[in-house]
Write a structure and sequence with these properties.
By secondary structure, this protein is mostly beta strands. It has two helices and 16 strands. A 14-stranded antiparallel beta barrel has the order 1-2-3-4-5-6-7-10-11-12-13-14-15-16. The protein has a two-stranded antiparallel ribbon with strand order 8-9.
C-alpha cells in the first residue's frame, strides 16, 4: 500500500512544478489542439473546443463524433487522458457532449460536459455549457461540483472570426474542502489570410496568473493533409502535428515538448455523418 501511495504523489509533484495542475485545469483537448498548444481553444472546426467556448458549431448540419487519447502527459502513464466528444444539430441550434478521464486508479478526474449553441444572427452565435467535475482519490472518497460556461462567437469579416467565453463563471468548488475550480476569461481569433493557411491566437486570464497567450499555425497542404504547429507564450511548450482527412473520417496526431519534462503525444479519430 505504501508503494501505491508513493506512486500517487510522483505525478502530482511533477504537475505542481509546471503550469499544469491537478484540479481540472484546462489542458489542450484533442490532438489538433495539442499540436496548436491551446491556441485553438476557439476553433469552429474542432468539437473538443466547445469545452472552452460552448457557442461553437451553432449551425452544425450533421453528426460528428471524436475520440482522443494521450497515453501520458510527459510520458507518465499515471497522467493518461481519454476524451470523447459528439455534436449534433438541434431544433434551433446544436448540442455538444464531452466526456474525459484524466489520471489513474489512485487519483482520477472525470468530466462530463453538455453544451448548447444557437445563432443570434448570421454572424453571431451564443452558447452555454454545464460541466460536472468529479475527483476521486483512493482511500479518501470522491467529490464533485458543477461549472457553468458562457460563450460567444462573431464573424468580423469573411477571413476573421472571434470567440469569447467566461469559463466556470459561477466559481464552483470541490466538495467540503472549498477548493475552487479555476474560473477564466478566454478569447481567441481565427484569421484566414489565404484559403489554405490558418492563423490562431488564444488568450486567457484568471485571478491567479497574468494574461497569457498562445499562437498556432495550420497549413492545409492538400484536401487530405494538414500540418500544424503552436507555442505557448514564452515558449514554455511548443507542439507540432498533422491531420489526415479522407471522405468522412479524420485522424489527428500531435506532440508537444516541455523543456524540462519531455514529450507528450496525443491521437484523435473522428467520424462525420451528414
Amino acid at each position: 500500500m505504501r508503494y501505491h501511495r508513493f506512486g500517487l504523489w510522483i505525478p502530482l509533484f511533477i504537475l505542481s512544478v509546471t503550469d499544469v495542475n491537478s484540479a481540472f485545469e484546462r489542458l489542450p483537448a484533442g490532438a489538433r489542439s495539442h499540436a496548436l498548444r491551446g491556441a485553438s481553444q476557439f476553433s469552429r472546426n474542432d468539437p473538443f473546443c466547445r469545452e472552452a467556448n460552448p457557442s461553437l458549431q451553432a449551425a452544425a448540419d450533421g453528426v460528428c463524433a471524436w475520440f482522443s487519447l494521450s497515453p501520458g502527459l510527459f510520458g507518465l502513464p499515471e497522467l493518461q487522458r481519454i476524451e470523447a466528444a459528439v455534436q449534433f444539430p438541434a431544433l434551433i441550434g446544436s448540442v455538444g457532449l464531452l466526456g474525459r478521464s484524466f489520471g489513474f486508479d489512485l487519483c482520477r478526474e472525470t468530466t462530463f460536459l453538455a453544451a448548447f449553441s444557437a445563432e443570434m444572427t448570421s454572424d453571431v452565435s451564443i452558447g452555454v455549457s454545464a460541466a460536472w467535475y468529479d475527483l476521486r482519490i483512493e482511500g479518501y472518497g470522491h467529490a464533485g461540483c458543477l461549472g457553468i460556461t458562457l460563450g460567444m462567437t462573431a464573424r468580423l469579416a469573411d477571413q476573421v472570426h472571434y470567440g469569447f467565453s467566461l469559463r466556470n463563471f459561477n466559481r464552483p468548488t470541490i466538495g467540503q474542502t472549498g477548493e475552487p475550480i479555476r474560473s477564466e476569461i478566454l478569447g481567441g481569433v481565427e484569421f484566414l489570410p489565404i484559403p489554405s493557411f490558418l492563423l490562431l491566437i488564444g488568450i486567457s486570464k484568471n485571478a491567479d496568473v497574468p494574461l497569457s497567450g498562445a499562437l498556432g499555425l495550420e497549413w492545409q497542404v492538400t484536401d487530405y493533409l494538414a500540418v500544424r504547429a503552436g507555442a505557448n507564450e514564452g515558449l514554455e511548450e511548443f507542439g507540432v502535428g498533422l491531420g489526415i482527412h479522407a471522405v468522412s473520417c479524420s485522424f489527428d496526431y500531435g506532440v508537444s515538448v516541455h523543456p524540462d519534462l519531455g514529450l507528450t503525444h496525443s491521437l484523435s479519430l473522428g467520424v462525420a455523418f451528414p
